[in-house]
Every structure is written in structure tokens, then in C-alpha cells.
Amino acid sequence: MLREIASTVASPETPHVTAAEAEAMARAVLKLFEKWKLGDGTAREMLGGLAARTYARWKAGDPGRIDRDLATRLSLLMGIHKGLRYLFADPERGYAWIGKPNDAFGGRTPAEVMGQGDIFSLARVRAYLDAERGGW
User: Fold this and answer.
1) Could you list the mean pLDDT of each consecutive 10-residue stretch along the chain, which spans 136 residues?
2) Range(s) of the domain holding residue 61
3) What is the reported pTM?
4) Is residue 113 part of a domain?
5) In terms of C-beta density within 10 A (0-12 exposed, 13-18 middle, 19 or more buried), how is residue 79 classed?
6) Would 57 be classed as within a structural domain?
7) Which residues contact residue 110 at a Cβ distance below 8 angstroms, ignoring those fewer than 6 apart?
8) With contact defined as beta carbons under 8 Å apart, do 50 and 58 qualify?
9) For residues 73 and 122, is the Cβ–Cβ distance under 8 A?
10) C-alpha to C-alpha distance for 32 and 43, rounded to whole angstroms
11) CA-CA distance, 117 to 49, in Å (whole number)?
């Protein structure tokens, strides 16, 4: 059954991610992980080693407090999604790209790189997509 989720109010003059924006990103990232066909362990590592119990709460719709590190990770994941949507006209190809070996990552998949757990790995995949998109 579909249920409407209230949209968040954008506050571009606010220099940080608001709690409402972070919750919206958390919901979106959970859907994204489904599209990317990630296991819970890999997804939790991408989120900074989130505890299994906490991740289960997220999946149940209660992300709780999202700190600055986690909000940054969510932002990077949304940027990766955005980059893939720019690069691939067919969204399914973009979702599949995450699980395909890539020479730019030493033959590993982007999911494996991001699943290392450090924020720099998320930034590496994001920077790669931004460079591909920008043509440099």
C-alpha cells in the first residue's frame, strides 16, 4: 500500500543538512540500496558501520538521530545516484553499474569500493562519476 510522505522544506540558506533533509535522504538511500541489490552488510558498511539493529530500525522507518558523518555519507550516496542518472538514460543500467567490475577501481565493483566503509571510498566513487560526467 502506498502512503504519502510529507516533503521536506528546502532551506538553501542553511549551511548544514537539517534533520528533515537527513531523514528524507535516509529514506531515499534505503530505496537506492534495494535498486543496487546490496546486502544489508554492505549497506551498513557504506553507512559507516551502522549496527545491524540500527539498520533494522532504519528499514522499519525510524532512522533516529543522524549525525554529521552519516549525513555526509547520505549526501555522497545521493550524489552517486545523481551522477548515474546523468550518465545513463536507462535507470536500470545505472543501478546495475554499481555491481559491475570497473577498471578504474582495479577490477572491483563500485559496491565493493564503497563497501570498504570509509567515507573516502564513497567520495572516490562520487568523484569518478563527476569526472565522467564532466568530461575530464
Assistant:
1) 73 73 92 96 96 94 90 95 94 96 96 96 96 78
2) 19-134
3) 0.86
4) yes
5) middle
6) yes
7) 80, 97, 98, 99, 100, 102, 125
8) yes
9) yes
10) 10
11) 6
* Cell numbers found for residue 79: 550524489
Contact predicate 46/116, CB 8 Å: no
Report d(CA 47, CA 67) in Å as an integer: 11
Return all residues near 21 (Cβ < 8 A) that are at least 6 apart.
8, 11, 71
Question: Quick one: cell of 50?
Answer: 551502522
Helix axes 19-35, 52-59, angle to 10 degrees: 90
Q: Residue 124 has what pLDDT?
A: 96
Distance from C-alpha of 15 to C-alpha of 38, rounded to nearest angstrom: 31
Tell me, yes or no, whether 13 lies in a domain.
no
Give the number of other CB atoms < 10 A from CB of residue 66. 19
Look at the chain and report how many structural domains it folds into: 1
